[in-house]
Structure formats: structure tokens, C-alpha cells
């Protein structure tokens, strides 16, 4: 029998590492799907498809037409729409689904966290008095800062924010993680940051900003994740590999 065909929804470092691990076994045929929101995506260890599917129905049809055996959702924890579509497509097609989700960050004793549910709520929680804000939420929702133009915003993203932000006092930084605490602390100090707005993405690649805020006593406006899609979820690549082996116990015989 042939290799097990896996459609992986990616875009994260974990997705790239998982695709590498699966490809290295020689037992799996992986197609890695990216949304295409990043202009220059990182090199990937498996064939790549870029673009959407046309909702849950389109994704279900793609799964069936491609004769995939499994769909893996390894997207960003805040990519809620594609995760919902993956769960719905799995249910409609009868093709099993697994999700890889890094654990959330947890506040430590010296952290000053304000918990909010949305980016809009985060911007509102900054208050009416001018503040100096590190807006570390990516470029897709950065425009929501325009609702509170009295603040200074340091905005960091992988690609330029488009259309440009209409703000009187904003500094744009193009950069890609991982970051280290020393650099993040220097960045905070250089721009005299007194508030960090971020999503609870989890993982280590961007955690340095949380550590830097802790060391400097800076308030963190932490945006919570939406409820996870209804599918079996694991937290690590090792756990995902074990779950796949459990789901397809004859994988080794099929692939060699």
C-alpha cells in the first residue's frame, strides 16, 4: 500500500517542524497548506499549496478529491476561522482531523496582566490618557489602534501593514522571530514602552517580550484565545506523532 496522505494546514514554526518529522519517516505524503498572508514564507520541508479552499465545503471536497487520509490543523492559535473549517470539513468528509496547539502562556507572580477577549477591547483598555504601546498582534488587526489615536504605537510585523495606519504617532518595525529577552528589553527601553498589547499565542518564539515586560514592570494587555475547534488536540510534535501512529497502526507496514 502507498503512503498515508496528510493535508496539513500550517504557517507556524511547529507546522514546519512537524512536516519535517513526518517527511523524514518516509511513511507519509504531506501537503502543507499556507494561507498566503506572509509575502516571503519560510522554506518548507514538504510540497506547499498557497491559498484558501472556499470554506468548509471546499476544504471537504479537496480532502476527498485528493484522497487524503488525515487533516492536521497546525495553524496559529488565533486562526479561528480555518480551524473551524477544518473541523467541519473533517465531519463532512469522514476524514479524521488532529490539531497541534502550543499551550497558552500563564501569568507568573511578577507579571502585570490585564485579560481581554478581543483586540478592540485591548485598545479600549489602554484608557484615554496617552500611553506608549508596543502593539505586537501582527498586521491583520493593527488598524484597530486607529480607534485610540492619542497613544504612541510601536507596531511589529513580518510584512508591512497595508493599508498604512492612519495614526499621528506610530513606529513600524519589520522583523521575524524568534526574539531574545535582551533585544526585547532594549526595544522597550528605546521607545519608552509602558504597555504591551499581545495575543496569548503561547510557545517560545515570541515569549521574550513577555519576559522583558516582566523585568521592566510593564503592563501586558493579554488577548485570550477563542474556544478551540472540536477535534482531538495535542500540545507537542511528539504527541502528534504518537497520535498519528495510534490512528494508523499499520503506517509502518504501508510505507516500507
TrEMBL record:
Keyword annotations of the record: Cobalamin biosynthesis, Oxidoreductase, Plasmid
Pathway: Cofactor biosynthesis; adenosylcobalamin biosynthesis
InterPro entries: Precorrin-6x_reduct (IPR003723)
Domain of life: Bacteria
Protein's GO biological process: cobalamin biosynthetic process
Molecular function GO terms recorded: precorrin-6A reductase activity
Stretches of the chain forming a coiled coil according to its record: none
E.C. number: 1.3.1.54
Pfam families per record: CbiJ
PANTHER family in the cross-refs: COBALT-PRECORRIN-6A REDUCTASE
Protein name according to UniProt: Precorrin-6A reductase
Gene (UniProt): cobK
